[in-house]
Design a protein that fits this description.
- The protein contains two helices and ten strands.
- With 137 residues, the chain is of the alpha+beta class.
- The protein has one domain (23-136): Ribbon (Umud Fragment, subunit A).
- A hairpin with a 4-residue loop joins strand 3 and strand 4 (73-82).
- Helices cover 25% and strands 31% of the residues.
Length: 137
């Protein structure tokens, strides 16, 4: 029984560290907490985040994760325009774009396999629930 406990603890503690190392970002996983990226990413999906080194790693059409400095949250939206110092994103289900984002605020972009975002449906539901509880207070 103790052996199984060590195996589970190793997976729970080791998997995020392994993903951070292999995806080259301190934030290798994120939960989709709203419907703004529907139908590509759905509320409750868990995605994997590939680190980026700067503007050269980002293209129009990429789904990126960036830190929103105004409320210290992460936003997961698609890049719609790029300029020298900033880029603009928009949720696929939104009608308007977001405020410009500095490249240094970009944490990464969705990890893809064969051109498709890697996501695990429903595994981010715990984060969605916690986020709604915190925002309701």
């Amino acid at each position: 029984m103790l052996t199984y406990g060590f195996i589970v603890a190793g997976i729970v503690l080791g998997l995020p560290k392994f993903l951070a190392w292999s995806l080259e970002t301190p934030y290798p996983m994120a939960a989709i907490t709203s419907g703004s990226m529907w139908p590509v990413l759905k509320e409750g999906d868990l995605i994997f985040v590939q680190g980026v080194q700067g503007k050269s790693d980002i293209r129009i059409g990429d789904v990126i994760v960036y830190r929103n400095k105004s409320n210290n949250t992460f936003v997961i939206h698609r890049v719609v325009t790029m300029s020298d110092g900033t880029l603009t994103t928009k949720g696929d289900a939104n009608f308007t774009g977001d405020a410009p984002v500095a490249y240094e605020d970009v944490v990464g972009k969705t990890f893809q396999v064969l051109g498709h975002n890697v996501r695990i449906p429903h595994l981010g539901v715990i984060t969605v629930y916690a986020n709604k509880k915190i925002n309701a207070q």
